[in-house]
Input
Amino acid sequence: MAVSKEKKKEWMELWKEKLNSSSGVWVTDYISLTANEINEIRRAIRETGAELRVVKNRLFKMVLEGEWEGLSEFIEGPTAVIFCPDDGIETLKKLKDLSKEYPPLKIRGGYLEGRILKDKELDYVAKLPSKNVLFAQVMGSLLTPLYNIHSALKGLLSSLAYILTELKRRKEKEEGNDG
Output
């Protein structure tokens, strides 16, 4: 069944919109996967906030211009593209795990935060902590000195309060002895 020009244009606009709103994009090969397996992968990917789309290669290559042009080298054969609006690293980790469960699923390459990645770079990036984990680590590093200062000041204030209470008690005792 032939696809109308309007439908093709609609797809291209959708893909362009998805690319522009993504911090990461992963290109995969899904040959030899059944429809049910692709749906399972799609469901698992959705848990990371990403979306898997099967694309028409010729049309998708037309969409890849400018900063996305480097992805063209990965577009051949049966192609599924994963668009990651949030954390591309978390989605890549999920894809790596899924490729163990579904061996025909191959990650050809991708785009993350302005950079085209392939081969060993994918393995390296997949081992990195996700954005949320990195953010938590940085915040922890920044907050630790503040917490230490807070604890020290709290200790000094407690000591000052104890000293003032003791001085008051002694003064009242002296006044009691004088009267």
About this structure: The chain has six helices and five strands. The CA atoms of residues 100 and 129 lie 20 Å apart. The beta strands are 24-29, 51-54, 79-84, 106-112, 115-117. The domain at 5-128 is CATH 3.30.70.1730 (Alpha-Beta Plaits).
